Amino acid sequence: MYKIMMFEGGVYKFNELKELIEDIGGFILQESVMQSETMLHIAFPEEEERTIRNKIKDLGGKFTKLPLAGTEIIIVAPSLGKHHAVNPMCDIAEFLRREGAITNMMGLARGVGKRIAQITAEEKKIINEFDAAVFVFGDFKDCIEEKKKLCDQIEVPYLIVGGPPDLELDHYVGGIGRKTDRMRRKGEIDTLKTMTAELGKILDEKRLEVEEDPLAASPPFIEEMIEMFIPPKAGEELPVIIQLDGLRINIEEEDVGRIKDVEVGKKKLSEICELKKSLFKGYLLKIKTEAEVGGIY
Amino acid sequence: MEVKVEGGDDFANASYTTICQDTFRDLGVRASIDRVYLYVDPKDHVFIISVKIGRVSSPVKVDDITRQETEERYRITNEKYAPKLLALLWDKYGERAQQLSRLEITLKIDEKEIDDLKALIVYDPREDLVTRILDGMDRILPEGARVRCPISLPNRITIIASENTITEDWKKKAEEMVRMQEGVSEDV
User: Fold this and answer.
1) For position A217, what pLDDT does the model report?
2) Which of A160, B80, B91, B125 is exposed most, by the fewest CB atoms within 10 A?
3) Residue A79 to residue B143, Cβ atoms within 8 A
4) b/e sequence A237-272, b meaning 16+ C-beta within 10 Å
């Protein structure tokens, strides 16, 4: 199983670190170099953590855990109107991104109100494409309790974020509610940290499930294979997004046929993955389990 | 501006007090509002908002926002009103008014016309005050409460909002509540 961590440091002998990661069979998921500052999201085999830590000790820099790395999360608000967006949705998304997640946002078509709140079948399908969902609800206890019915229909793990701090609901974090400005006060930042920790716990449960029945190949490995075959276009951001049990790939329609023939070990991609068009963006690759298709070597 | 929120739990009341203050501040009508009363009943999904209009600032005249530099040349001292000022001058003087740069204008007018020019009203806050307050109320009231019913009382704008049909009972109750607020505030 791969562990994903973030390295922040200078450019001094930075290439040596990148080479080491490749040598031990790790991957660079994200890289950004800003003048003399560098930031790397690295996926590497868990047992090799010591080797990387030793190298970083030589180079100097920060090496931090990313509890939400390798996941794609959707933030769902009752609407995209000024009542719900952009605060606090953006603060929540930013905090999730700081912990390594890739985030997306969505406003429901008819999610407002208490009795009249609804979720459409298509919205449910879109949410189910992600690893987890965060529902951002308002200030009122009665409304949140009533609106929970929207979340119950979702198959992926979810977290409800709302106002009242003392609501007894599963996977609920209170203290946020409706906002008119950025959450930058200490108390608010602590609430956001609690929220990310809670989501981390939910995702760990899902991770454990995936580990119990291992995938034929890990998502970062498949990402590397795909990028070798279809190099990312200039200026394109995140052409391949890693999920816990699959990938989202943003490719042109004419490349779909080609991508099925990408070789992953001794097997073809179409043999170990299910490819379907996403309702949201690009194509989704769901990796089959090793038990189902056998090893790739 | 005084804000009073009732009916919800402590968190909701505190949160809506901030929302009221921030929304009216964003719209620039805080100074023109005396009191805001918000009653929330999430159980029945009824929200009552009532705003008491206070003193409105006086109209902005050409003299307040420009400075004469030479005989024909004027400088805009408050850029916020520049589009309204230019529209007004072009409308009144046509090609005699020209914009030289961002804040400079030339006006070819007789000396007799200068006094008239200075007294021209560029913007009267009274004009769109009610519209702006209504916009603010719309931003404050929950988005789901789309059924609206206004209650007319002098110097006040009151709206009942709900996602259900608003009953006569609620209309009466709202009027009583608002009148009570009026009574309380007058005693103060």
Assistant:
1) 92
2) B91
3) yes
4) eebbbbbbbbbbbbbeeeeeeebeebebeebebeeb
